[in-house]
Design goal:
The complex is a heterodimer of chains A (331) and B (577).
Chain A: H1 14-38, E1 67-71, H2 75-85, E2 98-102, H3 119-131, E3 136-140, H4 147-153, H5 156-163, E4 166-168, E5 175-178, E6 189-192, E7 201-211, E8 215-217, H6 238-248, E9 253-262, E10 275-276, E11 280-284, H7 287-297, H8 306-313, E12 327-330
Parallel strand pairs in A: 1-12, 2-3, 2-7, 3-4, 7-9
Antiparallel strand pairs in A: 1-11, 5-6, 7-8, 9-10, 9-11
Chain B: H1 3-24, H2 41-44, H3 47-57, H4 66-77, H5 80-85, H6 87-99, H7 105-111, H8 120-133, H9 149-169, H10 182-198, H11 202-207, H12 209-217, E1 224-227, E2 252-253, H13 262-266, E3 272-275, E4 283-284, H14 290-308, H15 331-334, H16 343-347, E5 353-355, E6 368-370, H17 385-389, H18 400-404, E7 419-422, H19 428-432, H20 438-442, E8 450-470, E9 473-476, E10 491-495, E11 498-505, E12 509-512, E13 523-535, H21 545-549, E14 558-561
Parallel strand pairs in B: 2-4
Antiparallel strand pairs in B: 1-3, 5-6, 7-14, 8-9, 8-13, 9-12, 10-11, 10-13, 11-12
Helix pairs in contact in B: 1-6, 3-4, 3-8, 6-10, 8-12, 8-14, 9-10
The chains are: A alpha/beta (331), B alpha+beta (577).
Chain lengths: 331, 577
Amino acid sequence: MVREAEQNNETISRRRFLIRMAKAGVAVAAAGGLGALLYDPLGPGARKNIAAVSLPDFSIPNLAPKMAIVSGSDRKATAQKALEALGGIGTFIKQGDRVLIKVNAAFATPPILSATTHPDLVGEVITLCLKAGAAEVRVTDNPINDAASCFQLTEIGRAVEKSGGRLYMPKESYFAPASVNGGELIRDWPLLYEPFKGVNKLIGLTPLKDHHRSGASMTLKNWYGLLGGRRNIFHQDIHNIIKELGMMARPTFVILDGTMAMMTNGPTGGAISDLMAANLMIASTDPVAADAFGATVLERKTASLPFIRKAAEAGCGTADYETLKPERLSI
Amino acid sequence: MKITTARRISQIFFVVLFFWFCVVATMGTEFWRLRGWSVNWFLNLDPLAAIGAALATRTLYRGMVWAVATIVLTIIFGRFFCGWVCPFGAMHQFFGWLGAFGRKISQRIERNKYRKAQSIKYFLLVLFLIMAAFPLWESVSLQTGLLDPIPFVYRSVNLVLIPILDSHTRAVFYSSRQYDGAWFLGTLFLAALFLNIWIPRFYCRFICPLGALLGVLGRFSIWRIGKTKEKSRDCKLCEKSCEGACQPSGKIRISECVLCFNCLHICPDNLIAWQTQESSAGEIINPDIGRRGFILSAVSGLLAVPIIRLAGTLGTNWHHKVIRPPGALAEVEFLKRCLKCGQCMRICPTNVIVPSGIEGGLENLWTPVLNFRSGTSGCQLNCTACGFICPTAAIRPITLSEKLGLGEFSEKGPIRMGTAFVDRSRCLPWSMNTPCIVCQENCPMTPKAIYLEEQYSTVRDGVYEAASADGAAIRVNKAQWKPEQYAAGDYFCEAGGRRARIISNSADTLILEEPLQISAGDRVVIKIHLYAPMVDIARCIGCGICEHECPVSGLRAIRVSAENESRNRNRSLFLKN
């Protein structure tokens, strides 16, 4: 049952009525205005291309490609000597330079298993760069295993700390979409970009390893660790992705560490029996040449590693490393 | 200094200490990260956890012996732990204090009156302890952790609060943390805190089984709160901020008093004291549950576990996704110890240990299971952190040698958490003629537990008739290839029983790495070189790194389930153990 409302005999004052009308008017205008402002007749369209970053060329201009192969078991000594043979660290690192070192810290394994860049090598190169006047030496990688575990167990973290470098642990915010000029695979793909900001020199330090999918993991494949996202899908086209990595990162120089070369069970290894004491340290301004030589140490034919030919054809270097007249030294 | 000031300092100290323990329980190189901090200390002090586990296992593991100190001090002083130490209690008190703003004194007194529902916590206590203590058909289950405030606050702060607060600062974790069912943990945490706005210390008064236990233990306490004269003006100011709702104005309920001392100084006639004498107005020592209530709770506790286990989750109906961390005890023993505190999930550097839901049985709720889809990698081969942090040895501390089956453990082999199974209907090489082997590459075992079957598989529409051959260049009829379509390095041309790698192609011509003897009209087949992964069950430990890395990112093409785990021999796949 509905009760009839009682008659209200009080009349509203003009003043109160006008104030209420004004408030209602403002509310109506606000609702209408907001509606007009937010009106979107088309809805979201297809995904737009994001402005992607790309890496500059970090190589020393007008410097003829050079390579040095030093035999010996003491990584610090062989690395030092190899760099001397390339003209000395001063050829590459100048006063005030900001240097980024890309190591391979992919797995949470101890240095003795040689699945990762050896901490002695990392420490030595940082020290040399700082001696040459580098203002800052950064070290980074986006490992496969848990990053904190990797940098701890490989002892790279401690080596960086001790020698005065700065470790860039990969964080989500450090990645930016990147593209490679002329690339087909690395397009708008997350790249570990933050450590590159303000850097003018790039060094790759790589252990020489067997790799099941690509045949060998050397200096070109080392840049894989700069990618983020679900990068594993690139294994479907491994040789082309390695080629594009070579196109993406043009380093100042690379060092391929074959002191203990991983001959089998790569890239993880896991046993001393997977390793061979090749006792070689290769420094090169040309990563393709370094890899082509590395393949011989792993007893692999260059032909069985199509990425070397592809990278050479893409202009990343030469597969015929002898044309560089590599200096062969020993300690 | 007033004793209430001392109490506040104590509470702040323990809350700060608790948060510090939560923050530092992180692996990493910075000085403040895990360096022997006693991050389990509050769990060690927890008598409910200790008594529950002791009833279930007849032992008191390692640091849990600290609980004896709490018990002794509670016998002497009463529920000091609730009012002075418990970090969750302090949080409740803080929120209760917020809720008092803008309320009149009479309303505050009303909020702090004793309520009959405060006996609920004693029913829960009896239920949980009987579940843990008395085997009826071999069924014992430690479920105190569901409501025990110390595991509650640990898992809430570690698995919900810190991951959220840290999501933009990245000061604690390098990458975002993921915990299955965090919404539920978060809802309960917020509900427990926000209910204090309505009734202060809601959780402590009505639910907390630890508070109930301490209330019972404190019945002989030597010093206690009480009135020095029976008659007073009955202003009830003493109950204005009474944390325990223990009615100090009348017959004080000793088991409810949390020793907050808020009644002590507020009495205008100075009639309340902390003394050895009993209150002049009388005391109520026993919890308000009665014999019938006790019996009903006990019978429920006795039947609860057998009823839950009727699902058969410990028998043939065990759930394959209950993959426990390395070192976890056999399931029956595990369920006697796990507190659901989440410390293993907190410490796990890869974030692969997550709280379970109820899919493996109701008892499994919030116990640790491995989810290889979350986190930064699978279970790391050289890591044994979870067993070292576990406060109850539900996950036993194991050495690396034992985990990996080295040295004296070489006979037993490595500890297996489960086994990886290749789903051939989803695997790129097995089902899509696409090279991959990411799983095999990432297998950390030596030799690898994933091995490869080499295949040369004909590509789609890959059979042609040769039109002409000029050295390493072969032109075929009726081809319309995209240039460089077969140049990836994985494609081969097969003809006359021989095979050569294709290094380049145009619309109808292949360039091979080396010439094949081919003449016009010969059958030419384009093949892709594949390696198809197979799992060697004798070597796989179920670490899940393969599943984590599998590029088929939805339902992974290689997945670990708990079959063949070492800890339950009846789940073995081996013919000989």
